[in-house]
Design a protein that fits this description.
Its EC number is 2.3.1.-. It comes from Dongia sedimenti. Keywords: Acyltransferase, Transferase. This protein is α+β, with helices and mostly antiparallel strands. It contains five helices and seven strands, in the order βαααβββαβαββ. Helix 1 packs antiparallel against helix 2 (about 35-45).
């Protein structure tokens, strides 16, 4: 693999702790205080059950440790999935890791029958999702602080007509 190549693969059993740590480190990069990060940590956790369900993807470059993670979960609304996680190691921001993970996560959701993906975005990531074609459709309360509204996006997944 070339030094700039990014490999996206399904997460493997046992990787939940390292992927959770990556999520926490990536979120903390934006300067959130200790109290916020403590409250957010439960929402940043990657679970082994999600890995077992084939819903978690990892990004790897030349280094062996994951440099990004994305996860999708089905919603109650038929044919809709949520991008529940998309985090990139701070030292790899701006290098295409997030874009590659986003594309792979959308493709995975499509393979699982999704026609749309919902994204509750951190405010720092809103421009990223807009640049990748997601449409802002409103705001929703944060799982950490219900009084804090976060940008809500949706993305229609194009499917080939049979």
């Amino acid at each position: 693999m070339s030094p700039n190549a990014i490999l996206i693969r399904p997460a493997r059993p046992g990787e939940a702790p390292i992927l959770t740590e990556l999520c926490i480190r990536a979120k903390a990069h934006w300067g959130y205080d200790t109290a916020f990060m403590a409250a957010a940590s439960r929402l940043l956790r990657i679970r082994e059950s999600e890995i077992g369900a084939g819903s978690v993807l990892t990004a790897h470059a030349a280094e062996s440790a994951p440099c990004g993670v994305a996860a999708i979960v089905p919603l109650r609304r038929p044919n809709w999935f949520e991008l529940s996680h998309l985090f990139v190691a701070p030292e790899r921001l701006g290098q295409g890791v997030g874009r590659a993970l986003f594309g792979a996560a959308v493709a995975l959701a499509g393979a699982k029958g999704a026609t749309h993906v919902s994204i509750l975005s951190d405010p720092h990531a809103a421009a990223f999702y807009e640049k990748l074609g997601a449409r802002r459709c409103g705001a929703a309360p944060s799982g950490v602080d219900r009084s804090r509204l976060l940008p809500l996006f949706e993305l229609a997944i194009p499917h080939a007509v049979n």
